[in-house]
Prior knowledge:
Blueprint: H1 2-32, E1 37-41, E2 55-57, E3 64-66, E4 81-87, E5 94-99, E6 110-121, E7 141-145, E8 150-152, H2 158-166, E9 170-176, E10 182-189, E11 192-196
Amino acid sequence: MKRTRIVLGLAIAVLFQTAILVQMVWAQITLLQSPTEAILRTAPVDPRDIFRGDYVILNYEISTMDGRAVPLAPEAKNGQEVYVVLRTTEPYATPLRTLATPPASLNEDEAVIRGKLTWANRDGRASMDPICEDSDEGCATYFVVYPVDSYFVPEGTGGEIEEYRNERALGVIVALNEDGDAAIKGLMLDGEKVYDEPLF
């Protein structure tokens, strides 16, 4: 009887873990099959943050934003999730506004990506930020990080891809759903799609 209970307990634990893995895989497949896409332009990465293994570190132009051009919701707090509304028209998606809560509705050419607000300069004073250094008047900037900050690539190709990234010639195709979840579907070099993320 005791052995039967142990076997039954192990079987339930294995089934539970399998169900969780299946749910995670299915969620990723569903997201990658989303018809909503945005192409994000990458930005150079600090040269000290070198290529590691077979993946590339990604930084996006929409990570550093000028609050005058892309308004930040006043209630958005550092360290909290925010929702960046993007215009998805080609060639690259452009940010329109950043919200503290999911948008109630979107236009046909818009999508939303969820990230974390890491820092915001709300007082309007000029700073040493690249966005502000040429400004003669007040400047507000803020920074958002996204969960699509690295991409696994075929062995031996990382260096070339990083060169494109640092020359701002690398685009990242991101699948988005209505909740702002994001998954990398592929890469574009000089406007041409070169990598596709397999579903399995």
